[in-house]
């Protein structure tokens, strides 16, 4: 599946890296000094943008597999910063924890060298409103 990236995600340099477990896409964000917070480290907002985009990508992939295309509206997004992100590419992948008819709960992790050593994580709760198209 090709991920539908928002203009915001494209501006941050986020791209699809590969398809992960259960069809959830892995996203990659190359480091740029435009995304630097303090010298030698990513800005937290850039990491949060990667996490949120990966969460939506995982949800869109699962919904597409089920033949659904609802309008997605965030209920809340909680980000946890776990360690400093160094000046190299960062990756993220979302995992659907619960997918109901109207709500979805997604867990997302970002890492750099090793997926088992996350630099940040997020929990997202998304409202899914069916559109009449």
Chain-averaged pLDDT: 90
Give the N-to-C terminal Cα separation.
22 Å
Largest sheet: 6 strands, antiparallel
Strand neighbour order, sheet with most strands: 1-2-4-5-6-3
Shape: elongated
Order of helices and strands: HEEHEEEE
As residue ranges, the low-confidence spans are none
Helix count from the secondary structure assignment? 2
Q: Percentage of helical residues? A: 10-25%
In CATH, the architecture is Roll
Short structural description:
The protein contains 2 helices and 6 strands, in the order αββαββββ. With 133 residues, it is an alpha+beta fold.
What does this structure look like?
With 133 residues, the protein is of the alpha+beta class. The protein has a single domain, classed as Thiol Ester Dehydrase, Chain A. The chain is built from two helices and six strands, in the order αββαββββ. It has helices at residues 7-11, 44-65; strands at 14-19, 25-29, 71-81, 90-99, 103-111, 118-129. The protein has a six-stranded antiparallel sheet with strand order 1-2-4-5-6-3. The protein is elongated, with a radius of gyration of 14 Å. It starts with 6 loop residues before the first helix and ends with a strand.
